[in-house]
Specification:
Layout lengths: L1 E8 L2 E10 L2 E8 L5 E6 L3 H17 L3 E4 L7
Antiparallel strand pairs: 1-2, 1-5, 2-3, 3-4
Length: about 80
């Protein structure tokens, strides 16, 4: 599973990506157009990894500075 968010800090566009692969949760973030910084956490079991993924996901969804998630529908 993967979720992708974008946001703007002043005149700089940034991104935050959360990926879940079995027992591994990866986050990647940085300026849009760059490779960004990747962090990886390996958990003892799949349930713990899923809980961490959901925690990060809810944290980003609750943050009003994030304005786009991959797969969202834009409304003008």
């Amino acid at each position: 599973m993967m979720e992708y968010f974008e946001y703007q800090e002043e005149n700089v566009f940034c991104f935050f990506e959360i990926t879940l692969e079995h027992k591994v949760v990866r986050t990647r973030y940085g300026r849009k157009g760059s490779k960004g910084v990747t962090t990886e956490k390996v958990f003892g079991d799949v349930n713990m990894a899923e809980k961490e993924y959901e925690r990060l996901l809810q944290e980003k969804k609750a943050d009003d500075s994030f304005y786009f998630r991959l797969g969202d529908t834009y409304r003008l």
